[in-house]
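If you are new to this repository, start here. Below is one unmodified record pulled from the training split, so you can see the exact layout before writing a loader.
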Amino acid sequence: MYNVFSTREIGVLKVVNLMLTARQMLIFKCIVEEFIENAEPVGSKALMMKYQLPYSSATIRNEMNFLENYGYLEKTHISSGRVPSKEGYRFYVHNLGKVDLDEGTKNQVATIINKHRRNLNEMVHESCNMLSELTHLTSVALGNASDDMLQRISVVPLDDGRVTAIIITSQGHVENKVFQFSSDVEMEDLLSCVNVMNELLIGTPISEVAFRLERDVRPILTTQVKQHEELFNAFLEAFVKFASNSVYFSGKENMLYQPEYNDVNKLRRLVTAFENSQSWKSLEPIALEDGVTVRIGSDSPIKDLNDVSVISASFKTGNESKGSISVIGPTRMPYEKVVSLVEYI
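And here is the target side for that same chain:
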């Protein structure tokens, strides 16, 4: 049983408490899975033939009427077959059985986790990439750097005035930033700048580094480094970006191929939501013991679209901080597969 979010408490109580017969459960499950596969309203005759149900078409229609009256199914128009409602999806997810992943998928996950010289960011990003590839949906990782501190800053000269700065944190996060400096900046000044920052900022929470740069580092650079303003501004920008860069997406383009988003206006709202990292704040890490959380329709972070679902789980990144990894897709997504993948990863 999984944690299914809903803002419609009465509807959820009705969904959870209503007991369906074995026949109703079987018919409902077949309808949901048929619609997930084909994105077309499901009729009684097609259902009976494809799934070889041991019931007449009339019996199936009667049960479909029952399920519709209780809010689990709905019609797209008067003469159409049925499709699952949001409440129906919640009921379906609430009653999902445990699905074991195949050994090939488990081995893919193990390969990512066990790779040598991989920091946390790389493992999370590769996990996201694998999730989006296996589900053909979009995945997102949300970090929480509440106890992540600066561990070291290093620089590597490249060519033509370019330098790579490497910022490493206590939780193994790494940010690489390529700077293009003017010809007036000398390597000696750059190294002096880095030495000052390492001396004064190591052990500082990432969220506070920009403030400490301004308060503690800038006055010293002003007196010791010739091109202090250019160097200071470059590192300030890098740290501000690093502190706010806590959302990682993979497979955004997968949503473009979902029939639900053939509508240009819907697609525009979806793309806008992807570009606005603030809209994902509701996915901030939940308690680890809560397991997998499923947000359906209006419960998802994309408030302008009611046919989006998000499946999330938390992971620990330090003594107190957590991150979350999620899969985003239409409400018509293969919940069994996605829930099992997210939970396992």
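Two things worth knowing about this chain: Residues 6-17 have pLDDT under 50 and may be disordered. The first helix runs from residue 9 to 17.
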